[in-house]
Amino acid sequence: MEAKIALAGNPNSGKTTVFNALTGGRGHVGNWPGVTVEKKDGAVKGHPGIIIEDLPGIYSLSPYTPEEIVSRGYLINEKPDVIINIVDASNLERNLYLTTQLAEIGIPMVIALNMTDVVEKTGDVIDYGKLSEELGAPVFGICAVNGRDLRLALLADKAIEMKGKNPPKAEGCFSEKTEAALRKIMDLAAKAGIAESPRFYAVKLFERDKEIKLSLPPEVSEEIEKIIQACEKELDDDSESIITVERYDRIAEIMKKCVKLNDAGGLSASDKIDRVVTHRVLALPIFALVMFFVYFVSISAVGAWLTDWVNDSLFGEIIPGAVSGFLASVNTAEWLNSLILDGIVAGVGAVLGFLPQMFVLFFCLAALEDCGYMARIAFIMDRIFRKFGLSGKSFIPMLVGTGCGVPGIMASRTIESPADRRMTITTTTFMPCSAKLPIIALISGAFFGDSALVPSSAYFLGVASIIISGVALKQTRLFAGEASPFIMELPAYHMPRIGGALRVAGERAVSFAKRAGTFITLATVIVWFLSGYGFDLKPAEVDSSILAFIGRGAAPLFRPAGFGSWQAVVASITGLMAKENVVGTMGVLYPGDSLASAMTPRAAYAFLVFNLLCAPCVAAMSAIAKEMNSKKWTAFAIGYQCAFAYAAAVIVYRLGAIFGGGI
Amino acid sequence: MPLAMVRPGQSANIKRVTGKEEVKRHLENLGFVEGQSVSVVSELSGNLIINVKGSRVALDKNMASRIIM
């Protein structure tokens, strides 16, 4: 059997969690609205012909942001066989607003009340049977975070069974007068040839939705307009408000019949936490403290301890010792020994050495995201960002960007205004992504004794660069204008799920290790070759190698920033392929501990600043090109990033000379 | 009075939502409709966290002054 099933529901209602549970997929899940910005499909486990489509969350069928348009377009134009409406049961009233609209499309529907565990805790009681009766569709209670919840399999079976069955009951949602007007519009539209989803189109026509483009003959449009005006006059309201208000009235009626609220009164736990973490005075210090703590734990404490062992013992002694012993025993050629030891082991080892630190950092960030705090940061940052012409919503892509710049850039789709979106795409990669982390850890370890201040400062440098860019770019005509309004639903807090955070951290660590094993190995081999051979293709001293020649050409450019050595320049260039390469290249070009004496700490920090802010890796640059959808804007973004990075590095280096003395 | 003037801990009923059509519609979709009772959870230099229909919605100051209570 074959069927197309769409998962539709409010943002952050758990669609991707259900999708992962049903398909065995690994879509990214986060506790804030707008994690999923693209639709994604997968086959149901055990039913290869049944395809489930995970859609971005929507509040209604009147889209507001670009990713909401994707969802509506799919539901209306591609017509799935069945809709599974995922409903956040702990927020039933607001979620049913969408449910009643989905019913109007006229596709068979199953309603899954998710997060029933939260409802049980609050003591509310939902009568599933009654709710099913009122909505005219099967209703299931599920708890999707518990992947073993047996009701998930029942839900999938029911959804498959619903193919070809009756769609939910949509009539009777509005007052008798409105319903009469809708019936008349439906008749007129049917005569004009609109056969599919008649009720959905009737409601949209009644609302005068401008996004809906139906080719109706002018006399029909006129007649419909007369019906709407008559109804507006009778009910003394504009047609769109009539629909909204009556829909909410109907939902209030359903709530009354089906839900017994445990009205214990007082503040919910989430509200109490919000009182503290979004407090007018405490909010920013708490945020700074949390970020410092996260970096302290992952870079200085647990992570550094592990990384030191991996770097100094594993890749410093154990592996090189074992490998050179092995190579000696099989009596390999000199150049091959050099390739393996000085090239691959030194380069890839330098990158892999940071894996423990990255794992701990990924874990902390995933836990922070899961518990709901990340969404509050957007709220806290909004007031600061707004002063500089950006909305707090721009902060979400930047938060995602701390994992990887590519999804960060894609997350900019939740921003409504094109000017703000472009600005966010341009500045998102200023945030230190996971691939830049090894660079930070390298500099922090070699020059600053593994201080947590270096990584925290990198984070705040990212934020500061975004703010400064916001101020500067808003002065130009291209980006001028008021910041987008900030309207964002905040998720409820819950205890971070350790297992989930470990899984996210594990996945990212694995993909990091994979890159180290493939892409970065290749790059280090190239660097090893270019640094070990001259233009005559004969082995040469490093100083007369091809790489030294290339690096020397560009090095003078970076002398004002303090890191005019050709090695540092070459490392920065290889970083454009993948940021980890910076560390891999440094590993090849500065064997052993020679890095610490190659630069002053001040120059090293300027080097770090430049590499954090300059054009990102190829993958992120192509994401920029895709989201900008314009060559001109892509070139602008990358050019701006490089110019900004250069200026920042020079300024940091010069200021360091004034304030830091001779270091 | 605008929602921006409601103090944390207090609640009030919405009289009307003003402003641009699409923003107004978005607010309505989130539950900000005429007659709805909302309460202010927290305030941060004019930006508010509002409890509406059992969910929490963050609004900037400008938005909060367009919702008339």
Strand order of the biggest β-sheet of chain A: 2-3-1-4-5-7
How big a fraction of the residues of chain A is strand? 5-15%
Report the helical percentage of chain A: 55-70%
| Shape annotation of chain B | globular
CATH topology of chain B: SH3 type barrels
| Broad structural category of chain A | alpha/beta
Rg over CA atoms of chain A = 29 Å
**How far apart, in Å, are the first and last alpha carbons of chain A?**
71 Å
Instruction: Tell how many strands the DSSP assignment of chain B holds.
Output: 6
The CATH architecture term of chain B is Roll
Reported for the largest beta sheet of chain B, the result is: 4 strands, antiparallel
Per the principal axes of the C-alpha atoms, what is the gross shape of chain A?
elongated
- The share of residues in helices of chain B is 10-25%
**What is the radius of gyration of chain B?**
10 Å
Considering residues with a beta carbon less than 8 A from a beta carbon on another chain, report the largest interface and each chain's count.
Answer: A-B, 39 and 34 residues
Overall mean confidence score, pLDDT of chain B: 89
CATH homologous superfamily annotation of chain B:
Ferrous iron transport protein A (FeoA)
Give the overall average pLDDT of chain A: 86
- As for the number of domains of chain A, it is 3
Tally the helices of chain B.
2
Strand content of chain B: 35-45%
